[in-house]
């Protein structure tokens, strides 16, 4: 079988174990090679090669619904459903998406990018199937990391009580991005190490199944004996107690074991969970031996050495912010750091090593992370919560009800603010401004560079009330260490360059682009006033009054949603104060932004030199005509 000729998974039905193993090896080799050029979630995918093949062999997709939680581990699924020849475009502009995408294939029945949604979605699909009297399987695949997410636990609670038939595949590789954490993880560990109990239970059940005409009485006795097995050997069979039949643990790299388990699962009428044990990064030494989380997902790499290509000369924003927080933590014992499962991405590993007792990785649990931070603050600590903009969306009510309403001293580092690039639609950090600014107590800042970020971090740890610092994916500018800025005052914007032809207001990395535009105008003897709106909330009302009184045209450029963005706040302010300035905005319209290189995406949106220049020119000319 030439894997480049695969159009759909039907061919798997007739394959024997030897052929399946050969296919697995071919797919692994292909993934290692292909991701070395494009980057991607290589570690997660190498771990599920056999599992995905086995699922497509045993289930009839798309009639049977196979749903991937998070969706970062669906590459093999994409290959088996006819997309292998698009892998050279993986996660690139207009290319193959790194997550399931309905418009790519009828086999992608659920889209995700954020974790822990698959069980709720599967329950919805299974309920619909039953109401419509259809007959097919619903098969969500969820990782041990995603299982710690609140939604997954809410779904299990519901699935177990409703006894909704579905086959849950728990892919347990003991890793989230970083090594998995938490009591659920510990429980899975105990189950894994109690293989003898599970074997005994499994053999016993199989033996009973094979006795013809097992009467109800015998079944009763059997169930009781099974229960005593359970209590004798295992500290708590969580899933069975919830009403979900547990099968496993199964070696997820062994076709015979997968075969038996999936056949058994298909025979069961209620909800069943197959506990599949896999090795993340399987088959590629660098990824397989990774104990940190580097190989979960990454950019292009050198296959032989595992060297990650495209290194930068400056540190990442995450690293800069985390290290600055750490330096404050040396001085103030009340400072603690919290992350919902992103110690690697948010670069908190240094903090964790230095102050393990003041560092908390709570697993994929954004809501809990936010309210726990609120609790820490209520008890007099100074929590620093690092959270990606996109994942902060999960904890909105916690941010509003627990942090902001109680005006607690929680300092939030909003990592990956703005466009993130290759992860695309599900991960762009472009909504936080719109949903944070209505919160009455919140302060929201974004620095123009790392020196200003240092000032903001200092301010945050001395501020009374909730405060957040946005910072982008990518690396800091690398400005001169000697540069010092005047003291930062809460809510005060900065004039970067003076001029009265037009005011352009922006914040964060976009300011550099705006400054380039102003420099170009300067060469034409047109002076533009560039404003660094480093406080997105509160806005600088006194500067806006000045601009209002001058009636100067204002152009707002923001790498964020226009709805509820800085431009709309400025517009409201001017309206409320009866100023008549002409105001234009460049930013993200009411749409989702797909994957691609950030610069390509910015160009597409119109946050580009050419577009800002053209809009500015138009406004200057119009203003000249009117005056
Ligand atoms: C709500 C949410 N929080 C955090 C993440 C970031 N994230 C993506 S994958 C992942 C680890 C998932 O672990 P697991 O489910 O065990 O899958 P594995 O990669 O081990 O196969 C995390 C934390 C996310 N995608 N969604
Ligand atoms: C799938 C997922 O949510 C993460 O793996 C994410 O892709 C990490 O993004 P960064 O590479 O920006 O840390
Ligand atoms: Mg895992």
TrEMBL record:
The cofactor note from the UniProt entry for this protein is: Binds 1 Mg(2+) ion per subunit. Binds 1 thiamine pyrophosphate per subunit.
Q: What's any GO biological process attached to this entry?
A: terpenoid biosynthetic process
Q: Which reaction does it catalyse?
A: D-glyceraldehyde 3-phosphate + pyruvate + H(+) = 1-deoxy-D-xylulose 5-phosphate + CO2
Give the required cofactors.
Answer: Mg(2+); thiamine diphosphate
Summarize where thiamine diphosphate binds, as residue positions. 72, 113-115, 145-146, 173, 284, 366
The protein's Enzyme Commission number: 2.2.1.7
Q: What does the sequence similarity comment in the record state about its family?
A: Belongs to the transketolase family. DXPS subfamily.
- Return the HAMAP family for the record: DXP_synth
User: What is the official name of this protein in its record?
Assistant: 1-deoxy-D-xylulose-5-phosphate synthase
């Amino acid at each position: 079988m030439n894997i480049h000729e695969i159009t759909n998974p039907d061919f798997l039905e007739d394959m024997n174990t030897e052929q399946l193993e050969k296919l697995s090896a071919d797919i692994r080799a292909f993934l290692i090679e292909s991701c070395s050029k494009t980057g991607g979630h290589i570690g997660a995918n190498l771990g599920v090669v056999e599992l995905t093949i086995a699922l497509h062999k045993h289930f009839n997709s798309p009639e049977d619904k196979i749903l991937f939680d998070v969706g970062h581990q669906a590459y093999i699924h994409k290959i088996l459903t006819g997309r292998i020849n698009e892998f050279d475009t993986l996660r690139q502009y207009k290319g193959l998406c790194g997550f399931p995408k309905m418009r790519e294939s009828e086999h992608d029945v659920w889209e995700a990018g954020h974790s822990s949604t698959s069980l709720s979605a599967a329950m919805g699909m299974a309920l619909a199937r039953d109401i419509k009297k259809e007959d097919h399987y619903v098969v969500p695949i969820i990782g041990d990391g995603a299982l710690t997410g609140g939604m997954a636990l809410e779904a299990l609670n519901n699935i177990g009580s409703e006894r909704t038939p579905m086959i849950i595949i728990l892919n347990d590789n003991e890793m989230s991005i970083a090594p998995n954490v938490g009591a659920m993880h510990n429980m899975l560990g105990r189950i894994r190490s109690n293989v003898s109990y599970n074997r005994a239970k499994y053999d016993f059940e199989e033996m009973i199944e094979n006795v013809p005409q097992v009467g109800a009485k015998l079944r009763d006795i059997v169930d009781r004996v099974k229960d005593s097995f359970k209590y004798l050997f295992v500290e708590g069979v969580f899933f069975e107690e919830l009403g979900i039949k547990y099968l496993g643990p199964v070696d997820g790299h062994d076709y015979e074991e997968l075969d038996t388990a999936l056949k058994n699962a298909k025979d069961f009428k209620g909800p069943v969970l197959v506990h599949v044990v896999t090795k993340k990064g399987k088959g590629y030494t660098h990824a397989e031996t990774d104990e940190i989380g580097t190989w979960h997902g990454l950019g292009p790499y050198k296959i032989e050495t595992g060297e990650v290509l495209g290194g930068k000369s400056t540190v990442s924003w995450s690293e800069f912010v985390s290290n600055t927080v750490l330096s404050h933590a040396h001085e103030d014992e009340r400072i603690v750091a919290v992350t919902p499962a992103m110690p690697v991405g948010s670069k908190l590993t240094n903090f964790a090593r230095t102050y393990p007792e003041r560092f908390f990785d709570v697993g994929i649990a954004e809501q809990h992370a936010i309210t726990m931070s609120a609790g820490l603050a209520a008890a007099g600590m100074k929590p620093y919560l690092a959270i990606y903009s996109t994942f902060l969306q999960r904890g909105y009510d916690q941010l509003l009800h627990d942090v902001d309403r109680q005006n607690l001293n929680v300092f939030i580092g909003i990592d990956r603010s703005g466009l993130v690039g290759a992860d695309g639609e599900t991960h762009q950090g472009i909504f936080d401004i719109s949903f944070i600014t209505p919160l009455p107590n919140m302060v929201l800042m974004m620095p123009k560079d790392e020196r200003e970020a240092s000032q903001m971090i200092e301010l945050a740890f001395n501020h009374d009330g909730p405060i957040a610092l946005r910072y982008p994916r990518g690396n800091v500018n690398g400005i001169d260490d000697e540069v010092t800025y005047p003291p930062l005052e809460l809510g005060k914007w900065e004039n970067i360059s003076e001029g009265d032809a037009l005011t352009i207001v922006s914040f964060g990395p976009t300011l550099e682009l705006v400054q380039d535009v102003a420099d170009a105008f300067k060469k034409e003897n047109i002076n533009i006033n560039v404003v660094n709106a480093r406080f997105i909330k509160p806005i600088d009302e006194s500067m806006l009054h000045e601009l209002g009184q001058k009636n100067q045209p204002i152009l707002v450029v923001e790498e964020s949603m226009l709805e509820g963005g800085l431009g709309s706040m400025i517009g409201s302010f001017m309206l409320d104060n009866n100023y008549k300035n002409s105001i234009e905005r460049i930013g993200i319209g009411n749409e989702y932004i797909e994957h691609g290189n950030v610069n390509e995406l910015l160009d597409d949106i119109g946050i580009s030199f050419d577009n800002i220049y053209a809009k500015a020119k138009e406004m200057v000319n119009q203003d000249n005509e009117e005056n």
